[in-house]
């Protein structure tokens, strides 16, 4: 098989890889990226199918997200020590973007969400998470392939300006002071300038870094613009940015339960988030919960069997022989959804 194809990307090496002179090239268990394939080709090694294994989805998600997170950390470090502050697009396109596309192709939302739960690397993992979730949302919104590719890069780079924010502010284990928050807000303009000045990006991608904290009612930052002046890409990233931030453990608070996050986001549809984009996101996430157990506000537990398209957060729930339509039983609600 030819090494210049993507046949082996996303698969794992079975054993250590050496070239024909006995020089060590890659360790066993490496999840192969486009850059690894290029390196293997340079060493004139021809991979065979028995040299790799295909991982099950959960293992692939975890390794892919961990590898992407490590690559994002490397990209951040590279920019930090680069006087021009340009984004290394080759590394991003080789080490991160292919895996984001592979993860989103599998469409297993809970598997993806589990892999995205932050460890002690929120700053880097969050960029990968927003890249993955925005790509999923872009697919649900039926974006054209070329627009989806642009969105993936824009979303993955949305917080790149945080490189310029002091670490003690980024990792502060409590609320920021007004002065610290003013510094934090500057990551949007820093990111815009860095992406704008990087060859291989476009203005739409730079605007995502600038606008992902803007809100439809003008209550966002850095400029407080109204929704008609916010790009669609920025509106998409605003939704996924909020979702991942709220469902992740942070330095100063624990993650909120998934269902509470969706309830809060539904409230934010009226003013802060784009109503159509946010509803598509909520609807698709709730669709992915069909079959899950849900705990109701009266303490009973039942299985979600049907999502109402006009009221997705109030599904049809089966408890024993009974079916409860929460869109009609308004006194009842779901307090939390239990993973399968």
TrEMBL record:
It comes from the Bacteria. PROSITE patterns: HD_GYP. This is HD-GYP domain-containing protein. InterPro entries: HD/PDEase_dom, HD_GYP_dom. Residues 101-297 form the HD-GYP domain. The lineage of its organism: Bacteria, Bacillati, Bacillota, Bacilli, Bacillales. Pfam families: HD_5. Gene3D superfamilies: Hypothetical protein af1432 (1.10.3210.10).
